[in-house]
Amino acid sequence: MSAPGRVGVVTVVHGRHEHLALQEAGLAASHRPPDVRVRVAMADPDVTGPDVVALDVAPGRPLPVAAARNLGARTALDGGADVLVFLDVDCVPAPGALAAYAEAVADEPGTVWCGPVTYLEEADRPYRLADLARLDAPHPARPAPAPGERRHDDRWALFWSLSFAVGAAAWERCGGFDEAYEGYGGEDTDLGQRAARAGLRLGWLGAARAYHQHHPTSDPPVQHVADVVRNGRLFRDRWGWWPMGGWLEAFEARGLVRRVGDDGDDWVVAT
After folding, report:
1. Which segments constitute the Galactosyltransferase C-terminal domain (predicted)?
2. Which of 92, 109, 106, 113 is nearest to 22 (CA)?
3. Of the residues 38, 62, 167, 220, which has the fewest C-beta atoms closer than 10 A?
4. Helix or strand or coil: residue 230?
């Protein structure tokens, strides 16, 4: 068993400052605090501090989430990180999450590790760190091993970027996120395919739990329909199949998109 390396925690930020504050509190309460902390502020001048890297966004352009995550990873690696932990700004890590990620990456550096994520209810606000373990109920659409359990599951379509960890060498092997994706959706599924192509494995780590703070959203995310169609087509051109199929069908039912092409295998935003 190798010794755990230096952990860099990367979070991409655009708003959600209260959520970011609770995430910072969770990191401060970690059994193993991060060695390197990077917050990438996308067109968000209100996020400041020595661990902040600013990323400008041209007016009217979609947020460059993939590029921001890659910038965060480069910054963390340049700062001496051996293990990259990516946390969505809404996610609060459990106290043992970072240590569990570091140990798992040290043991199996060829595996990309994801932790179970609980979607917290709005009714449970205000969220307190001491209450999160009691509210633990991982999302049913993803594997959720028990604390202390590791599980391999190479269904890369299940990979998500809310909370995951990867070693520096494995990150270089897969090449990071594809920066052609802009805005909402697709870039994490694409990263999973890139990791699979690079020969990496997918693992689910029961001790690396995280808690996703509630925020208003639409289901399906109708405010992101153009991003979903654009990024979905890019993914199809890369990998031969459409991701986010459930969303596209829900958009179709609302008259927001329509199928085109000889076999109805393409989607466009309805006009």
Report:
1. 161-215
2. 92
3. 62
4. helix
